[in-house]
Amino acid sequence: MNLPPHALFTLWLLIIATPATAERIKDLAGIAGVRDNQLIGYGLVVGLNGTGDKTKFTGQTLRNMLARMGLTLPPGFRPKSKNIAAVTVHAVLPPFAKPGQTIDVNVASIGDAKSLRGGSLLMTPLKGIDGQVYAVAQGNLIVGGLTASGQDGSNITINIPSAGRIPNGATVERTVPSPFGHSRYLTLNLHHPDFTTSQRIAQAINRVLGPDTARPLDSTSVQVSAPVDPAQKVTFVSMIENMSVEPGESAARVIVNARTGTVVISKNVRVRPAAVSHGKLVVTIRENPQVSQPAPLSTGGTTQVVPQSDITVEERGRHMFVFDPGVSLEELVRAVNEVGAAPSDLVAILEALKSAGALQAELIII
Fold this sequence. Notes:
Layout: H1 5-17, E1 23-24, H2 25-28, E2 29-31, E3 37-46, H3 56-68, E4 85-93, E5 102-109, E6 120-127, E7 133-140, E8 146-149, E9 155-158, E10 163-172, E11 185-190, H4 195-209, E12 214-216, E13 221-225, H5 230-241, E14 244-245, E15 253-257, E16 262-265, E17 270-271, E18 274-287, E19 290-292, E20 304-306, E21 309-323, H6 329-338, H7 343-355, E22 359-360, E23 362-365
Parallel strand pairs: 15-23
Antiparallel strand pairs: 1-14, 2-11, 3-4, 3-6, 4-5, 5-10, 6-7, 7-10, 8-9, 11-13, 12-13, 15-16, 17-22, 18-21, 19-20
Helix pairs in contact: 1-5
């Protein structure tokens, strides 16, 4: 599929002129093969003020580094410098990153270092999952936490002093191959799979770029015929990203966080006819100790305290409300609020409605 430059420009103006009444395809889907790549490395942080490691492998790492630099330590000598720390270095390599560009890196201690504040990371190769070096990191750390201790053993720690960050601390050395410039098709993968959204994206693309340009493959993927020329393909993708599509409504769900009592109810939740009664049992225990004394003129008797407990059980806040057919989310929340139900009470009510088959939604408890 090759389009003349003036045709691409005309289509671009048409897309810009379309009012944005829905979400952009850029926000709904991503392009297959255009992705980040994770990098990881192992290195040393030096220049610490006595807050480094005491572990043996840190000294071994220092010995190996000095040996590569031509310095041979005496046999049996174990370096125990408290000014160094063994760390892991990880970064995210963005798609299409070119050699010479810089990326941010995160540094974290893997030993018993108390703090990395004031340290500098020595040259550390960062490798991908295939074992190849894609970037090299080095630089001064920015640490947001701190720790301080006194001679009596008291100490204070703010944030996390054993982890830091180096902005633009790694230089890209290798490009990750991408199928973007070699394929005749583009595949759009939805962030949230939905058959309706997939169909509407294909229809929006075909309406602007012509019939049979795009076709939905499943609830996640939409295949699009693209120009072969790389320059045209970039403009082509830019046009598609800025098209507006009305996404399909998600399935009815009720999400409950049992630990915090948070309840999230989606728009399409409905309730069948049901009557709900919810109340609380209040148990009250009162202690009324009684004093028992011996009879007058008796011998050998002693005064005793006899425990006596009064237990009462009553039910407070007993409420009943009825849901009519097709009750909406707003009506459900209003009914529960009118009876003064707490979040934990709402969770119990929703679970009971689901068990009774009256809640027309998926109940997810996390």
